[in-house]
């Protein structure tokens, strides 16, 4: 062991010290080697255990099945050459996509509608592997120029992609609303971006306007789109115009009722056995703890509801939206059943005839006709032309059959008839059945054709800082008389009106989830805010003001909080009057400006009050870097308010009209001018 010492060192040490040194090294070396050996042994076994333990789940995860997300493989397997992707928030774009995919057979082609959320869109570069292939995109724009929830991943991919799509042939139809600032932004972006990536546009971009007549816009585009497809691929229409059923009816005579859907949106029995997280496919059943009328007079019913979200793990921010799934009026459902002579409690399934389709049923099945017509199908909106076309075959009276076919045609006379007799008269499916006595379709085909009943969105009227276990809603019931003398009622608002606090819970449960929004208070509480929200447009601002009051209580410096609110009459529909007065008294609400439009000869609206206080408004915006928020009607109010800001900016900023417009648009880009509007 002593030989382990450095020989050079030993040569310099005197003989008497050498023996002592040798002895010392021996003891130290033995101790060190024993220690190192022990540590090494411990480390070796410890290391083995640490490495081995996570190895087992890793091996298991490798074996886990991977979902096939290639639409190319599915198209090859099923002989399809046209894929129609849809970005849909309310179901309309999905409906248009289904109609286009069904159209394809008339031209000797085969189509499939596809949800972009379910597939890998980078496969678009491989579509040219299929003969006579084409990708069509029916893209709705949501909110302020945003993609719909199911098209978000596709939008993100398009922004980041550097793919070569030179072999791809495409066409786009956009669904938008001209009352919104960013009309058809998603459709325009997809059309432009695909071309930038090298794809070949085979037909011009279609721009549907829901503020006008979206159905007519789609039909007009479609009737020019298919001839362009025929010309491009050298194919001709086969002349087949016959109705093609997509689903087959299966009646269940002996069924376990525990396997039957009773209104759930996704998982069977999800309303009996609630499990987070809660979303569109798994809504939370919130109990209504308060439902009070807000207005003191007038014909309308304005209401404040409070939903209990305790134990749901649902989190929300001021400015978010709450979505609720309503139910159709039972009297309308019963009348449809009576007219069609149907046992509404029969248990049935509608099964997709295309076994390869991801969509096995048009709505959760098995279920009863009563459940389908109550919770799953839209029976109150005027049906689209494709529904009339498919139903025409069941009219035994030649005149009625011809009328239905004419309204479903692309002829000018037919479009005009559809517009006046269906759209403007607000005839829903029940009214059409009542006014056409010979039209008695099988109820299963009617259920196949009707669109899905959609969730309704409301701006949340509370702050989670103050109400962490509750979500507040402010809404007005919709009720009006049609040109035919019928009384039409809004599905969701009238359903909510009847939701009252109930100890038994049965009559007070609301299926809901939260949708995140970009409508947010400034990051710094000291930043001033100008809020403009007449009518129920005040909803998110009640949440904003509650939050600013909470921040003030926490000792934070809170900037000017200015509200411009409007209603018809002070003694009739001044919403949250007491709450607003209290906030103003406490100094949270710096300014409360209220326009009563009908309390004097000349109507006064919020934009008139903005003009009246224009100097103060400009000072807050220009010097205080205030954030501006507008909530309510998009068609008139939001536009008038925006024009007023153009005028104020032009006057006090010494700018021309185009410069003022550019200034306000830049505020929007920076997130200092936010809109939460509807039409």
UniProtKB/TrEMBL annotation:
<keyword id="KW-1133">Transmembrane helix</keyword>
<dbReference type="InterPro" id="IPR008254">
    <property type="entry name" value="Flavodoxin/NO_synth"/>
</dbReference>
<dbReference type="GO" id="GO:0009725">
    <property type="term" value="P:response to hormone"/>
</dbReference>
<dbReference type="InterPro" id="IPR001094">
    <property type="entry name" value="Flavdoxin-like"/>
</dbReference>
<keyword id="KW-0472">Membrane</keyword>
<dbReference type="GO" id="GO:0003958">
    <property type="term" value="F:NADPH-hemoprotein reductase activity"/>
</dbReference>
<keyword id="KW-0812">Transmembrane</keyword>
<keyword id="KW-0521">NADP</keyword>
<dbReference type="InterPro" id="IPR029039">
    <property type="entry name" value="Flavoprotein-like_sf"/>
</dbReference>
<dbReference type="InterPro" id="IPR023208">
    <property type="entry name" value="P450R"/>
</dbReference>
<dbReference type="GO" id="GO:0005829">
    <property type="term" value="C:cytosol"/>
</dbReference>
<dbReference type="InterPro" id="IPR001433">
    <property type="entry name" value="OxRdtase_FAD/NAD-bd"/>
</dbReference>
<dbReference type="InterPro" id="IPR001709">
    <property type="entry name" value="Flavoprot_Pyr_Nucl_cyt_Rdtase"/>
</dbReference>
<feature type="transmembrane region" description="Helical">
    <location>
        <begin position="24"/>
        <end position="45"/>
    </location>
</feature>
<feature type="domain" description="Flavodoxin-like">
    <location>
        <begin position="82"/>
        <end position="226"/>
    </location>
</feature>
<dbReference type="InterPro" id="IPR017927">
    <property type="entry name" value="FAD-bd_FR_type"/>
</dbReference>
<protein>
    <recommendedName>
        <fullName>NADPH--hemoprotein reductase</fullName>
        <ecNumber>1.6.2.4</ecNumber>
    </recommendedName>
</protein>
<dbReference type="Pfam" id="PF00667">
    <property type="entry name" value="FAD_binding_1"/>
</dbReference>
<dbReference type="GO" id="GO:0050660">
    <property type="term" value="F:flavin adenine dinucleotide binding"/>
</dbReference>
<dbReference type="InterPro" id="IPR003097">
    <property type="entry name" value="CysJ-like_FAD-binding"/>
</dbReference>
<dbReference type="Pfam" id="PF00258">
    <property type="entry name" value="Flavodoxin_1"/>
</dbReference>
<keyword id="KW-0285">Flavoprotein</keyword>
<keyword id="KW-0274">FAD</keyword>
<keyword id="KW-0288">FMN</keyword>
<keyword id="KW-0256">Endoplasmic reticulum</keyword>
<dbReference type="InterPro" id="IPR039261">
    <property type="entry name" value="FNR_nucleotide-bd"/>
</dbReference>
<dbReference type="InterPro" id="IPR023173">
    <property type="entry name" value="NADPH_Cyt_P450_Rdtase_alpha"/>
</dbReference>
<dbReference type="Pfam" id="PF00175">
    <property type="entry name" value="NAD_binding_1"/>
</dbReference>
<dbReference type="GO" id="GO:0010181">
    <property type="term" value="F:FMN binding"/>
</dbReference>
<keyword id="KW-0560">Oxidoreductase</keyword>
<feature type="domain" description="FAD-binding FR-type">
    <location>
        <begin position="281"/>
        <end position="522"/>
    </location>
</feature>
<dbReference type="InterPro" id="IPR017938">
    <property type="entry name" value="Riboflavin_synthase-like_b-brl"/>
</dbReference>
């Amino acid at each position: 062991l002593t030989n382990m010492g450095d020989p050079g060192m030993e040569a310099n040490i005197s003989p008497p010290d050498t023996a002592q040194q040798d002895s010392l090294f021996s003891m130290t070396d033995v101790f060190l080697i024993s220690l190192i050996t022990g540590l090494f042994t411990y480390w070796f076994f410890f290391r083995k255990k640490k490495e081995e333990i996570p190895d087992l789940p890793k091996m298991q995860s490798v074996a886990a099945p991977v979902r096939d997300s290639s639409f190319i493989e599915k198209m090859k397997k099923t002989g399809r050459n046209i894929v129609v992707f849809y970005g849909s928030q309310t179901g309309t774009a999905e409906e248009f996509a289904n109609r286009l995919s069904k159209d394809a057979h008339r031209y000797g082609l085969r189509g499939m509608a596809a949800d972009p959320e379910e597939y890998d869109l980078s496969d678009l570069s491989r579509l040219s592997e299929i003969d006579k292939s084409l990708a069509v995109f029916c893209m709705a724009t949501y909110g302020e120029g945003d993609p719909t929830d199911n098209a978000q991943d596709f939008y993100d991919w398009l922004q980041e992609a550097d793919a070569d799509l030179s072999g791809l042939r495409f066409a786009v139809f956009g669904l938008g609303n001209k009352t919104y600032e960013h009309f058809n932004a998603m459709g325009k972006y997809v059309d432009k971006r695909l071309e930038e990536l090298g794809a070949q546009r085979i037909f011009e971009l279609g721009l549907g306007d829901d503020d006008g007549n979206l159905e007519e816009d789609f039909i007009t585009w479609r009737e020019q789109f298919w001839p362009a497809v025929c010309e491009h691929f050298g194919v001709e229409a086969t002349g087949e115009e016959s109705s093609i059923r997509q689903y087959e009816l299966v009646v269940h005579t002996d069924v376990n009722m525990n396997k039957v859907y009773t209104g759930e949106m996704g998982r069977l029995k999800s309303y009996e056995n609630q499990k987070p997280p809660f979303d569109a496919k798994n809504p939370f059943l919130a109990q209504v703890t308060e439902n009070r009328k807000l207005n003191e007079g007038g014909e309308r019913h304005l209401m404040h509801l409070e939903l209990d979200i305790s134990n749901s793990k649902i989190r929300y921010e001021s400015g978010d939206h709450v979505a609720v799934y309503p139910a159709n009026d039972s009297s309308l459902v019963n009348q449809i059943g009576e007219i069609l002579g149907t046992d509404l409690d029969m248990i049935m399934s509608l099964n997709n005839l295309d076994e390869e389709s991801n969509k096995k049923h048009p709505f959760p099945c098995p279920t009863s006709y009563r459940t389908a017509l109550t919770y799953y199908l839209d029976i109150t909106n005027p049906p689209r032309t494709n529904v009339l076309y498919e139903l025409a075959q069941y009219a035994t009276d030649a005149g009625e059959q011809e009328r239905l076919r004419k309204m479903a045609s692309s002829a000018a006379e037919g479009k005009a008839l559809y517009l006046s007799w269906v759209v403007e008269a607000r005839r829903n499916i029940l009214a059409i059945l009542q006014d056409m006595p010979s039209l008695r379709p099988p109820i299963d085909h009617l259920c196949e054709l009707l669109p899905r009943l959609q969730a309704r969105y409301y701006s949340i009227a509370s702050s989670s800082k103050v109400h962490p276990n509750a979500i507040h809603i402010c809404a007005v019931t919709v009720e009006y008389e049609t040109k035919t003398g019928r009384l039409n009622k809004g599905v969701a608002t009238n359903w909510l009106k009847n939701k009252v606090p109930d100890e038994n819970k049965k009559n007070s449960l609301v299926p809901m989830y939260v949708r995140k929004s970009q409508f947010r208070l400034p990051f710094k509480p000291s930043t001033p805010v100008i809020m403009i929200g007449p009518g129920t447009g005040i909803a998110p601002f009640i949440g904003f003001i509650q939050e600013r009051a909470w921040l003030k209580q926490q000792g934070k410096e809170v900037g000017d909080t200015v509200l411009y609110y409007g209603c018809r009459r002070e003694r009739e529909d001044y919403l949250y009057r007491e709450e607003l007065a209290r906030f103003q008294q406490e100094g949270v609400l710096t300014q409360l400006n209220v326009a009563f439009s009908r309390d004097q000869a000349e109507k006064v609206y919020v934009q008139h009050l903005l003009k009246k206080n224009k100097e103060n408004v400009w000072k807050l915006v220009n010097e205080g870097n205030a954030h501006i928020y507008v909530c309510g009607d998009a068609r008139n109010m939001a536009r008038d308010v925006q024009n007023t800001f153009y005028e104020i900016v032009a006057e006090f900023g010494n700018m021309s009209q185009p410069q003022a417009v550019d200034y306000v648009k830049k505020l929007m880009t920076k997130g200092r001018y936010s809109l939460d509007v509807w039409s």
